[in-house]
UniProtKB/TrEMBL annotation:
Pfam families to which the protein is assigned, alphabetical: CbiQ
UniProt-recorded name of the protein: Cobalt ECF transporter T component CbiQ
Bilayer topology annotation: Multi-pass membrane protein
Transmembrane segments: 38-55, 62-83, 103-126
UniProt subcellular location: Cell membrane
Organism the protein comes from: Duganella lactea
Cellular component, GO annotation: ATP-binding cassette (ABC) transporter complex
Top-level taxon: Bacteria
Coiled-coil annotated residue ranges, if any: none
Length: 244
């Protein structure tokens, strides 16, 4: 939900999704091609500054959304620092440090490219782009339903928390633990009931297996795609020049 909030508040919300996707794909390809730490660091800086300064994504939201994948990356890098010796005993080793550095920088660059896309593109716009790219309708419908169920889950959670708080369910630690347990037990039932109501509403609107949205119009889409292509060429030039 934080991702969607940031996307709707982004300065690039009305920029053509095709242009943003083109820029993100160019960043991913350039990150894969680049070899030296300097080139990868330049790509990371370019992608992050584009999202933070050009698209005006709030720094706090950017960091909050990036923390989970960064935590996974950190854990992966730490595990690569341990390895077996010739006797089969595991110990701390520094032989993998160059590989860890390259993997971490490449992963950060690709993460920055993807964050630049998802933090500036609301889901309906992204779905329209995927539909133009001939993505299977079943996959798109699953994305929409999961997206909707997140809001259903959040609404059920907030309403339950408000009701328990009004009944002094969190007045002390013991009561708070009891209320949390009751809340966890009731969430599955409430979400199931609301999901059934959502299905009933879809059937009442003659749902036939495909969810449609009104397509957005981007008058400057061609100009934006040209700018994105030029920016992507700059990143690719950095990566290709690094390999020469």
């Amino acid at each position: 939900m934080l991702i969607e909030t940031a996307a709707y508040a982004s300065r690039w919300r009305d920029v053509a999704p095709s242009a943003k996707a083109l820029f993100a794909v160019a960043g991913i390809v350039a990150s894969w091609l680049a070899q030296s730490p300097a080139a990868l660091a330049a790509l990371i800086a370019m992608l992050m500054l584009t999202a933070l300064l050009a698209a005006r994504v709030p720094l706090r939201s950017y960091i909050a959304i990036a923390l989970p994948p960064l935590g996974f990356l950190l854990l992966s890098c730490l595990t690569m620092l341990f390895g077996p010796d010739e006797n089969g005993h595991w110990h701390w080793t520094t032989t993998m440090l160059p590989t860890i550095q390259h993997t971490a920088l490449r992963s950060l660059a690709m993460l920055a490219a993807l964050l630049g896309l998802v933090l500036t593109t609301p889901l309906p716009h992204l779905l329209a782009l995927l539909r133009r790219l001939r993505t299977p309708e079943l996959l798109l419908d699953l994305m929409v339903l999961c997206y909707r169920m997140l809001f259903v889950l959040r609404q059920a959670w907030d309403e339950s928390i408000t009701a328990q708080t009004a009944r002094l369910g969190y007045r002390n630690w013991r009561q708070a633990w009891r209320s949390t347990g009751l809340l966890a037990g009731q969430m599955a039932v409430q979400v199931w009931q609301r999901a059934a109501a959502l299905q009933t509403a879809a059937d009442a609107r003659v749902y036939q297996g495909t969810l449609r949205f009104l397509p957005a119009i981007y008058p400057q889409a061609q100009r934006q795609q040209v700018i994105a292509a030029l920016a992507g060429c700059v990143m690719l030039a950095i990566a290709v020049g690094d390999r020469l």
